[in-house]
Amino acid sequence: MTPEDLLALLVTHQESLAADLDEEDRAEVAAALRETREAVTAGRSASPALRRLRRALSALPPKHPVSAALGSRRYAADGTGGRALPSADAIGAVLNLLEARDATAAPDSGPRTGVEPAPEPAELLAAARERLLAAPALTEREHAELLSSPEDRPELIRLVDPRPGGSGARCPRFQFRPGTLQPLPVVLRINGLLRADLDPWGAADWWLGGNGWLHGVPADLLGTLPDEELEGAALELVEAD
How many domains does the chain have? Predict the structure, then answer.
């Protein structure tokens, strides 16, 4: 299934798509679609935006047709290999459907003069980073001890707070065996798949966000689900890159 096929599927299931996503998730899908449209219009690779779209759509229930399609290994995350990228007009059509949701969801709330604008991508990004920075992390002492180790671990997620006066790098605690500074091997393998060295925020978002295919938050499922299932879910996200 090409990205254009995915957009066609979103149009086909527009009503259930809007109904099965809450306001925040719809806003994130819309932001990913706007980012995709900008990349297509500018002639840039849309792969990062389409990965963001896949992550946003993972909030759908597992039995939703879009979830089933995205779980297929036939899905391509970019238009490489002869596959067609969606047109800017096709992306705009899906955006219109999503952004019109609030205008039709509550007809008894009084007349509306227009559709409320979705949050800007920068606002969504700031909110996402704030959420990730709030996750349990190593203390300053533990982080300093980790950095003093002779073994370099570039695949560990380290998040640098970009806010004015923000704290230094934070290393999410889920990556380690409880009560130790020993990284979990499965975390290191998946972080490698997610390229945590290049995109620590994206990797952290995968671990700490809801995942429709895994029926939970991946970080919370460590030690509960088999490592192979966690790795398989991460591979689904990156296999087409």
Answer: 2
Are 22 and 88 in a shared domain? yes
- For 120-174, the pLDDT digits (tens) are 556 666 777 888 888 999 998 998 888 887 666 788 999 987 777 666 788 999 9
Closest CA to 26 of 89, 107, 128, 101: 101
- Assess whether 99 and 130 both reside in one domain: no
Q: Give the domain extent around 51.
A: 3-119
Q: Is residue 58 within 8 Å of residue 211, measured between CB atoms?
A: yes
Determine the residue type at 95. Answer: L
Residue listed under structure tokens 């349990």 = 136
Residue 88 has, within 13 A of its CA and on its CB side, a CA count of 9
Phi and psi of 176, rounded to 5°? -120, 155
102 with 139, same domain: the answer is no
Global pTM reads 0.55
SS3 (DSSP) at 30: helix
